[in-house]
Design goal:
2 copies of one chain form a homodimer. In chain A, 61% of the residues lie in helices and 10% in strands. Chain A is mainly α. Chain A binds a DNA duplex (30 and 30 nucleotides) through helix 3. Chains A, B: Keywords: DNA-binding, Repressor, Transcription, Transcription regulation.
DNA sequence: ATAATGATAGTCAATATTAGTCAAAGTTAA
DNA sequence: TTAACTTTGACTAATATTGACTATCATTAT
């Protein structure tokens, strides 16, 4: 999954630390130097890979002694997570973000592997086969929300 | 089948690697250069020779460090029935007929109860929420076919 | 206290680096 | 001859990288 470019490598590095600990705190410039990239690339990595959808909370401080802190967040229960996801989806969602959500549901054992794959099949671009991408994203959102709602009450 | 043209040769090259390994990961431009063809020919080869029907799964990423990954998947015994169903569905299907199909999948133990309910949720009129009934039926057909295609093989 | 300075991090848009799509043109085989 | 298949390239889309400019915070000087 990783290792094809610097962003992937930085992502892996941070996640390795997060596998041991609940949070990681870095100094942006140090990480940039460590991986031989510009500081703003760290922001790019965080923005694309440590989103709330994926279960991460990011805080930072500027100025002297500044830092970036990434924290794994834990939603209280499945119901809570499903509600949050439904909110996050809103009116449309692209395939990548949908994958992230399904992955999170699987990681947190809300759904099984086969169910996860069914959902991905149902919401893939190939399946929807709509020319207009905006419409496609809206449809995907509807289907995903429909499924999440179903999961929401099935578990009660 | 044999090396009558470049597409066949590229196909053979990739399949030779896949004979040793479960997956092959390429950089499109490199392969194109290796075989002295335009990059989009690689897409053509993949589209015509590495389909899910033949037991291959393809993933890719664009941008820096991009790649195309081809994976062999194990096709399951149920695939004849699934193929028949896919044919039966055609371009559109109503909710009642979809229910019949899902029921059959459950009866034949291709899917579990939870999975069946999930599929029904994904294809219900409420979820699809399109005004035009014809469009709704077409969309349902696409989703169902997408799901059936994914049931044809075993996932990691 | 307040202002100036230095040390951080954030934003955004330009550029770079890939892969995907599509249709026209060319080739082959029935 | 014609229908299917292959080749090609112009255009599009997605993702990554970079750097100039901005915002915020802590410390020091006035």
């Amino acid at each position: 999954m990783q290792g094809h470019n610097i962003s992937d490598i930085i992502e892996a590095y941070l996640k390795q630390i997060l596998a041991e600990s609940e949070r990681v705190e870095i100094k942006r410039s140090e990480i940039a130097e460590l991986f031989n990239c510009v500081p703003s690339q760290i922001n790019y990595v965080i923005k694309t890979r440590f989103t709330i959808q994926r279960g991460y909370l990011v805080q930072s401080k500027r100025g002297g002694g500044g830092y970036i802190r990434i924290e794994k967040v834990k939603l209280l229960d499945d119901r809570d997570m499903l509600d949050t996801m439904i909110q996050l989806i809103g009116e449309q969602i692209n395939q990548r973000d949908a994958l992230v959500m399904v992955q999170k549901l699987y990681d947190d054992q809300v759904i099984e592997r086969k169910e996860a794959n069914l959902i991905l099949a149902a919401t893939s671009r190939d399946t929807l086969a709509v020319a207009d991408h905006n419409l496609e994203a809206r449809l995907r959102a509807h289907i995903l929300v429909g499924i999440l709602n179903h999961l929401r009450y099935e578990r009660e």
